[in-house]
Amino acid sequence: MHTVDVVVIGAGFAGLTASRELSNAGYEVLTLEARDRIGGRTWTDYRLGHDLELGANWVHWVQPHVWAEMTRYSRGIERSPRAEEAYWHGADGKPRQGTLEEFMALIDEGQQLVIDDVREAMPRGAEPTVGRIEELDHLSIQDRFDRLGLASEAKAANESVWVGHVNAPLSEVGLSSALRWVAATGGHWQLMHEASATYRVAGGLKAFTAAIASEITGEIRLNSRVASVAQSGTGADAHAVVTLESGEQIRAKRVVSTLPVNAIGEIAFEPELPLAWRRQHAERVASQGTKVWIRVGGHVSRFFAYANQNDPISVLKAEFYCADERGNYTILVGFGPDHSRVDVDDIASLQAAVDRCRPGLAVEEATAHDWMADPLSQTTWMTHRPHQLTRDLTELQATQGMLHFATTDNANLWGGFIDGAIESGLREARRIIDSLPRPQRRSGS
Ligand SMILES: Cc1cc2nc3c(=O)[nH]c(=O)nc-3n(C[C@H](O)[C@H](O)[C@H](O)COP(=O)(O)OP(=O)(O)OC[C@H]3O[C@@H](n4cnc5c(N)ncnc54)[C@H](O)[C@@H]3O)c2cc1C
């Protein structure tokens, strides 16, 4: 049986970071990735005549783990177009048009009130369970909005903004998610907006993950889906056996699982997973929405639009201005709370969804990846249901024997983001380095 020091399951940001740290520390690391590519929930693909991010898109310098990696690999940023026009639904439920400033004035009070107690609830962004959050963790974001007494137009606009952030019906998402994001930006919701949806990585996330992978000395094996992980033995004989779907087995001193909570049930673990993992996997995390790229005819204004939180697409914005033999076109990016309500092949229903956001656009084509239906993710960007953060986070971070868990789902600071994935990969690599004797340096190294 092939033997290595560490098997890392998954080559997303968490897995690549852990593998790099461990291989740079001298361990023999084998990274097993089920897909035919690295990157996990980041995926830059050429579609609609442009490189598009089908998964994660935006980063910011207030995300410290991301930014350290951006510096390390000399990555730059590009700004998504600054909106000149805003669209939202008026009190009559019909789309209204205004300026960006008018829209920001409309949502200002509600955005602040939702997170007004953030400094008491979550005084330290990097320690999200410290503070009054435990008392508040039974609340959903919808519970909070329903108690604010906002006028209907402002309430609907504020709700749509938060659906765009959390990618699920607000009644299913813990208030903790809103508080976490704003705690991570020092309590400033405007900065949180900028951090979560403004700056793309120049050259795409594909080039970023390739840069990390190029530093990993061990093998990154694609098309290698892990079926089971069994720990056995004690003392010096303690080891884990990782079995691939193909039947091949690898023996390791440590294993790092980077699977999201929703997907971890696809692997059989012996002993069974800790309670927090089993419980949260059974409940599912809250995120369940969609991200869709839409080609519309002509070069349209730089806009963003918010429909109702129950619409198939609740947030829509112009991202790229392009031209081909069919003429000028604009690529829009849209987000909705329920992945099952957007079918990229059904242009008529997409047109209706776009009309609800911003009338007057002609939908030509669309593309997306259904991350919820994808067995290797079964989630988008993680947001918790009520109770999940304070009840489970500490246990989700704990090591189980030789098994480590590195995933954005169990990060402290930007849980659910690329930053959280890197944080978790660094954390688990450090734990392994501290607990596993370093191998003798190989000759020449
Ligand atoms: C549509 C969308 C938009 C997003 N937008 C943003 C954004 O703008 N900014 C941001 O910071 N974040 C965003 N995110 C979140 C970000 O993509 C994730 O937080 C991050 O990429 C997660 O990294 P990870 O390594 O923890 O998990 P993953 O990337 O999911 O990595 C886990 C890996 O494990 C592999 N795997 C699963 N099962 C097995 C198995 N049995 N055997 C072997 N391998 C397996 C998977 O294929 C995957 O490669 C977005 C996510 C989505 C889906």
Describe it for me?
The protein has helices at residues 13-24, 64-72, 100-114, 118-121, 133-136, 141-146, 152-166, 175-183, 189-197, 204-214, 275-283, 347-357, 388-397, 418-435, and strands spanning 2-9, 29-32, 44-47, 50-53, 58-59, 77-79, 85-89, 95-98, 199-201, 220-221, 226-232, 239-244, 249-257, 268-270, 290-297, 303-306, 315-324, 327-336, 363-367, 403-405. It is α/β, with parallel strands linked by helices. Among the domains are: 2-41 and 204-285 and 380-435, FAD/NAD(P)-binding domain (3-Layer(bba) Sandwich), CATH 3.50.50.60; 101-189, Guanine Nucleotide Dissociation Inhibitor, domain 1 (Orthogonal Bundle). The strands form four sheets. Strands 1, 2, 10, 11, 12, 13, 14 and 20 form an eight-stranded mixed beta sheet that branches. It has a seven-stranded mixed beta sheet with strand order 8-7-16-17-18-15-19. Strands 5-9-6 form a three-stranded antiparallel beta sheet. α1 (13-24) packs parallel to α14 (418-435), α3 (100-114) packs across α7 (152-166) and α11 (275-283) packs across α13. The protein is globular and about 70 Å long. It binds flavin-adenine dinucleotide. Flavin-adenine dinucleotide (FAD) binds next to α1, β5 and α14.
